[in-house]
Amino acid sequence: MAKAFLVDASKCIGCRGCQVACKQWHSLKAEPTAFLGSYENPRDLSAQTWRKVKFVETVAQDGAPRWRFLSDACKHCTDASCLAVCPTGALFRRPWGAVDLNQDVCNGCRYCVAACPFGVVTFNEATGRANKCIMCPDRVEAGLDPACVSTCPTGALSFGERGDLLARAKRRVAELRQRGEQPRLYGERELSGLHALYVLQEPPEAYGLPAKPRFAIAGVLPGSLLSIAASAVMGVAALVAFRERRVKKGE
Amino acid sequence: MGKNPAWTWYIVWYFFVGGLAAGAYMLAAVADLFGRREDRPIAKLGYSIALPLVLLSTILLTLDLGMPLRTLYMFRLVRLDSPMSVGSWALLGFGLASFVSLVLVLRDRPGDLRIRQVVAIPGGLLGFFIASYTGVLLGATNRPLWAGNDWIGPLFLASAFSTGVAGLAVLAHDGVARLRRFHLVAVVVEALLLIVFLATLGAHARLFLSGSLAPLFWGGVVVLGLLVPFALAFTGRTRPIEAVAGVLVLVGGFALRYLVLTGGQV
Known about the structure:
Chain A is an alpha+beta fold. In chain A, 30% of the residues lie in helices and 19% in strands. Chain A folds into two domains: 3-214, 2-Layer Sandwich (Alpha-Beta Plaits); 218-250.
């Protein structure tokens, strides 16, 4: 059955253990960074950073500052734009849900980079191929949790059957609501269901998540039909251009 | 939003060159299928433009990928969901059609016209595809300006035709007087589609209308690429004027590809 991450933002303490564990398991290099005005670092998911903790500072209604954390990575969407547009089949679906990326087959076209609605997939200049979180298939298929989940000290990150995690996420949302918070569940229905469920304490946009992520190939059909219509118009115009003269000559 | 794919000069040139090749081939195919004996030179010239430009297209795409042999990975699978996969196969088919058409038109033995007409049908249809799929491909991303825009394909298609006629007009020894009115139609359709495209861009239209890309948009696409050629079509019909108008349309077509590609990556 489908596996998934559950990211409970209300339990994240911003330790970035997941970020480091991911780097270590996948032998990802350090990258040059700069001070961003918070402890958040690096700025963005990249070819060398497949999971990172976002630091979000907001102000509550009572004027008190709130510091929110979110461990973020590839969401392994059901309607996965990167996978849909990949021309080589380098991006492929594992039977248990992960969107994996075969480096040997990637030819560096960068279509997935432009297609991802979350800005996750990144082109690796050094290898000329795309990179992103692949959900540790080597670990999962050996019965282990992904490296990030194994290292999480607070239970903010979990891994398991998507159905179980969804039920747990809903229970957690109800729990937080009872405490007077305004939690949101993200990933249940977005893009036909993400394989990364999020319990958020702020609106998705506050964490840089799109409220309505869009499946990149959604517009292929209307775009193609309009192109065919335009083709018909221009084709007939060209045909007329050659026919017209034939009629005139015949006169 | 997706990250910036950094589709820069190789891709800008490919979009332009591929569109021009498709436009030239489609006109040659129509000339072969529906034209008369006097239209043979147009067909010959159209095929002669198409084949080298298809070859140039594959070189440009290969250079963009960085490692030449990896281009072949495009032909591991047919992935109908991916405009780039279908486009790669179409480009392969279009290249084959261009090659066969050109060989036949150069050989010109009795009966070759019949075979050429048979090749021109799939070749011409592939031409339509090559001319427009790049626009559909951009719509099938999550980049600003491109995402979900259904009008880039039609716009590129019209531009492929207008640059195709322009290419013929520039290179033909005696010009393409027969295609003058069609050239005008192509420019007008392109202008109309450009207006629709801008209307669907919403806030992103400002980038072209008054933003950093505005000088190239107004100067390159609107004035040089559309208005001046349109005006020239109504002045004297001398050969030099026709050639100048052709060159301007080509410049406008290139500027259009540059602007649409750059607009989604700023």
